[in-house]
Predict the structure.
Amino acid sequence: MVHAGIVGATGYGGIELFRLLYNHPDVDEISLYSSSEAGKPYASFMPQVSGWFKGELRPIDEEQMKKELDVLFLATPAGVSGGLTPSFLDSGVKVIDLSGDLRLKNTEDYEKWYKKQASSESLLNEAVYGLSETNRENIKKAEILANPGCYPTAVLLGTAPLASRSDWNGDSLIIDAKSGISGAGKTPSEKSIYANTEENFRIYKVNGHQHIPEIEQQLQWWSGESEPITFSPHLVPMTRGIMATMYVNVDKTAPAEDWMELYREFYKDSPFVRVREDFPATKDVYASNFCDIHVTMDERTGRLTIVSVIDNLVKGASGQAVQNMNIMLGFEETKGLEFFPLYP
Ligand SMILES: NC(=O)C1=CN([C@@H]2O[C@H](COP(=O)(O)OP(=O)(O)OC[C@H]3O[C@@H](n4cnc5c(N)ncnc54)[C@H](OP(=O)(O)O)[C@@H]3O)[C@@H](O)[C@H]2O)C=CC1
Ligand SMILES: CC(=O)N[C@@H](CCC(=O)OP(=O)(O)O)C(=O)O
């Protein structure tokens, strides 16, 4: 049985992790850590757990954590895990980082896009990028895992079947993505408050989003080509969900049905990726670990339209982190994640 710890347990990602781990059949103990609220009952922040969970938030004490934990999740803002993770190297505690700190292998990229000091190169080399469906063999051996960003999860699962093919045309890729507001975390900002989000739809960080280098890095690993992408994120007035709509040029003479078959074959052993017969909507995956994808080709233009939807807090963060824990600890990949989306 596993003792799991969560740093950042009062944030959106940490709360979702607690919900998933509490119901995981192989996790028998969960310790919750807080940098600002240690000593207080978790239920005083989370009335949702009242009556059933009586645990308190604990202070972050690395020595104590190393003695007790099997796996530690860091659901913390950028800039925190790069400082915390080195204490756990060679400790036997597996670390799964939900932030962007350990994803980019090039320190200059991290500093440019995150505007923070990068982690050490040795730590970045140790961290395995955890896009579960495409990197299982390395994830199995990982001690430190960099959980992918929410948008990169949707985009990369939507492009993985194409990007390692010799006819991949990465230069032509355009990504139009939309996210619910919980993607921004729990701290309110001018842009996330009700009056600015309700009945509103906005584009943001055009050509400047921190997930651009993460997507480009993985596409380069697959294709061998360094190709800049066009990525336009939008904020939509919903709580959870991401839809990434992607356009890429392909060979005009290949029939549309062949592309669907390529996706079905690629994901045949991946229970959480569902290649759908029609375009999916965000509520088809709401509060679940599924990523639903559909692809079609316009034979007039020779362009594919690929749509990929996830729940940003589950498959885009905590669900994928639990999926990665399962792979790292040798459990069935689906353990603790076998539930349907909420509907309506
Ligand atoms: N929201 C989403 O959809 C996704 C988020 N992510 C990433 O996951 C991480 C967590 O995101 P999210 O939960 O939304 O963020 P939140 O802002 O909701 O929560 C972050 C938590 O981190 C804790 N924290 C803040 N500063 C520190 C610190 N210096 N040391 C330790 N803990 C600290 C806080 O808890 P306390 O004060 O109790 O310590 C806070 O509750 C971020 O890096 C985010 O970018 C990744 C994919 C999707
Ligand atoms: C809707 C919204 O604001 N989403 C956030 C996602 C942040 C995130 O997950 O950041 P890292 O993956 O870099 O940790 C954003 O676009 O910045």
Q: What stands out?
A: The pocket of NDP (ligand 1) is lined by residues 7-8, 10-14, 34-37, 75-78, 80, 98-99, 149-150, 182-183, 185-187, 312-313, 316-317 (CB under 6 Å).
